[in-house]
Design a protein that fits this description.
Blueprint (H helix, E strand, L loop, with lengths): L10 E5 L6 H11 L3 E4 H9 L3 H8 L1 H17 L4 E4 L8 H10 E7 L2 H8 L13 H16 L4 E4 L5 H15 L14
Parallel strand pairs: 1-3, 1-4, 2-3, 4-5
Helix pairs in contact: 1-8, 2-4, 3-4, 4-5, 6-7
Length: 191
C-alpha cells in the first residue's frame, strides 16, 4: 500500500516562466505527494470552450488574465489540496498571489533562459512567443517577472537534473520551510 507521508494539507502552487516544468514536474510531484494535479491553463480552456491561443487571438490578453484569475481562485478555494501548475503570467496578478498566500504554498521553478528556449521550442502552443525571437521574448519576460516569482515561498532550480531530482528537491525544501503542511512527519527525506 502506498504511503501518504508526503501528502500536503495545502495546495502546492507552481509558478515560473513557460518551459520551467510547471506542468511536467507538477504531474509527477502530485503523484509523489498522493495529490490531485491541476493545470490552470487546461481548466481555462475548458471554461472558455476554446484553446488558450484562441482566447488570446479572439479576446485578447486582458480577458484571458481575468479568466485565469477566476479559474485559479476556484481551484485554490474549492476541493481538496492539489498540485496546481499555473500559466507563466498568473503570478503577476496581485490577487492570485494573495489567494496563494491564503490557500497554498508557492514554489518558483526557476531555469536559465537557454533551457527555457530549448523546452518551449518543442511545442508551438505559446501565444506570447509566436511573434519574434524566443530568447529575446523570454529574456524580457524574465526581467519583468522574476522579481515577482522571487516572492514565492520556495525557489527550486528546474533547469538541471532529472524530474525526479527536482521533485525530491521541492519536497525537501517544502519540508524544511513549511513542515506544518505535511499530514505526517518526515521520516528522513533523502535529497
Amino acid at each position: 500500500m502506498a504511503t501518504n507521508k508526503n501528502k500536503s494539507s495545502k495546495t502546492i502552487i507552481l509558478v515560473g516562466l513557460m518551459g520551467a516544468g510547471k506542468s511536467s514536474v507538477g504531474k509527477r510531484l502530485a503523484k509523489a505527494m498522493h495529490m490531485q494535479f491541476s493545470d490552470s491553463d487546461d481548466d481555462i480552456a475548458v471554461a472558455a470552450g476554446c484553446s488558450i491561443s484562441d482566447i488570446f487571438s479572439v479576446h485578447g490578453e486582458s480577458i484571458f488574465r481575468d479568466l485565469e484569475r477566476r479559474v485559479i481562485a476556484r481551484l485554490l478555494s474549492e476541493g481538496p489540496p492539489r498540485v496546481l501548475a499555473t500559466g507563466g503570467g498568473a503570478w503577476m496578478n496581485p490577487s492570485v498571489r494573495d489567494l496563494a498566500e491564503q490557500y497554498a504554498v508557492s514554489v518558483w521553478l526557476r531555469a536559465d533562459i537557454d533551457v527555457l528556449v530549448e523546452r518551449v521550442s518543442r511545442k508551438n502552443t505559446r501565444p506570447l512567443l509566436e511573434q519574434g525571437d524566443k530568447f529575446a521574448i523570454l529574456g524580457k519576460m524574465a526581467e519583468e517577472r522574476n522579481p515577482y516569482y522571487a516572492l514565492a515561498d520556495v525557489v527550486v532550480d528546474s533547469g538541471e537534473g532529472t524530474q525526479e531530482q527536482i521533485i525530491r528537491c521541492i519536497i525537501r525544501r517544502l519540508r524544511e520551510s513549511h513542515p506544518h503542511i505535511f499530514l505526517t512527519p518526515c521520516e528522513g527525506t533523502s535529497s
